[in-house]
Amino acid sequence: MDKIELLAPAKNLECGIAAIDHGADAVYIGAQRFGARVAASNSVEDIAQLCTYAHQYGAKVYVTVNTIIYDEELEDTQRLLQDLQTANVDAILVQDMGLLSIVRSAFPLRYAKNCQLSIDLHASTQTDNRTIEKVQWLRSLGFRRVVLARELSLKEIAAIHQAVPDVELEVFVHGALCVSYSGQCYASQYCFGRSANRGACAQFCRLPFDLEDADGNVIERGRHLLSLKDMCRIEQLEELMEAGAVSFKIEGRLKDIDYVKNVTAAYSQRLNEIIARHPDKYCRASLGTCTYSFTPNLQKTFNRGFTDYFLYGRKPNIFSPDTPKALGEYVGKVKEIRGNSFNVAGTASFANGDGLCFFREEGRRSMVLEGFRVNRAEGNRLYPYQMPVDLKPGTALYRNFDQEFQRVMMGKTAVRKIPVEMTLREVDNGFELQMGSQSVCFPMEKQMAQKPQHENIVRQLSKLGNTPYECTSVHFVPQDFPFFIPSSVLTEMRRELSEKAMVNSEETVQTPVSSTDSHSGSNLSSFISHLSSHNKYPYLFNIANQQARAFYEQQGLKEIAPAFELSPVKNPLIMQCRHCLKFSLGYCVKNGGEKSPWKEPLYLKLDDGRRFRLEFQCSECQMNVYGAHPDPPK
After folding, report:
1. Residues 42-91: tens digit of each pLDDT
2. Cα–Cα distance between 455 and 565 in angstroms, integer?
3. Of 382, 409, 436, at which residue does a domain stop?
4. What whole-number distance in Å separates Cα of residue 307 and Cα of residue 317?
5. Domain count of the chain?
6. Cis omega (within 30 of 0) for bond into 478
7. Other CB atoms closer than 10 Å to residue 216's CB: what's the count?
8. Segments forming the whole domain that contains residue 619
């Protein structure tokens, strides 16, 4: 039976606890440093507190140490890893291969033969995991799990699982999309000195560009041509499970707590529905049942419109060229404008304070998103704080802030409880209370009851209060149980048993680790050499420290170059994208489009005049973006 894991993001401790409460089987979170979101850092003390809370439910905590590391940071990284082990984290996500020797040093027992250790090693999506060969190689290095590239299709995921069935496959199912393969984007560093591989992405892909041909003719003007919609695969979870994925990842370590609550609850409910249809095939990876005081709705939280991306192959509507901002949910069209108000044709209900938006034309940009707040709502007639000048009858409206939903989400929105049964039995010197595998014995003199005690005993033992448990039934041995036990003693028995159960649940389950010798990667050195011989840009290996250099030398890499952040190169390849503008604009001959009327190469041009050459690598169905070029001659 496959254990299925819903993996939710945590910007901080509060978000992490909310994720667990709303149905997450695991949470991923960043420490103070070395995580791929520098704005979402947390102390080891907070991470330890999150581990304690999560482990009560058998849920896990993964910490992102998935940036490239500089030489002067290696010692601090080793101390961090040791602190994380003390905090009882379940896994760390790694990008920099220089960390492998540090991991062996920090956790020496992990690599001893036949040893078991509670902390696992996961290959971050930042390691660019898109092929069977890459996953096989990562497995040989000791990675227990691989986070696959977001761009992979169902067929590609299934093929990887079939080829490497003993590696856990984690896939993204919801949230923002990077247009470049993760770990292979240098645009932010190249343009703004902010490295995506160091957690400081400046979101180059969300900027507006002109698309020009080789003669400087403008094909598209001021559009967000690299800005993708957000991923949503809630309708494809069962197919992903059948393909071999076991962990479903929600993006959002910079998102607020409302996003975490809403999205986690929506996906948790859907997973439960699927598992209920296949109880002999799948089960959840953690314990507990969630009760919600709201109805999850993915349209209510931040989104740029949704796409399932390349899950079923290439499709044209994956990007959001008119705006990189959140649209929210479609609520209808403007019907009539009257003075300082208008009404909406549609079925949506509105509240004072709602945030609405619409597209309008402006200058050189084809479409601009404009937002406004509703001051007063009277049915479907809305009175904005300030009437938008460009609002017209027939304009489509979207709600990107739902005041009523926000009000609901501010309160306690979920309770998670583990259903348990208790057994109270007579023993030689008193009584024993059992819950699952845990039990407590109370030696005491036995007294016969003068009147039936079952009702009072059940009531006292079921008062589990703020514990993670909910008592569903109490069994008696013997069944008639003729004894009297004071309520104070029953309370003490219940308290001791629940505390004992919680302590036991916090002990991380020890899992076998493959005894593969992580130093013997030579059997795959031909794979590394193959990559190197076909790679004109060796900085793509992201080698940022001496440990990483030594690692790749041992693996057989012939041409070793420092990371792009340490040694910029001329005319660099700054993005590798499966998203292709020729296809999206209808000019991919390979996929049935018209022949392009433009003179290539094509360029993306920023407002400041910098131009970025596009290369269409059709054999790989890939679009490459290269560093800035000067304007063409007039």
Report:
1. 999 999 999 999 999 999 999 999 999 999 999 899 889 989 989 999 99
2. 70
3. 409
4. 8
5. 4
6. yes
7. 15
8. 596-634
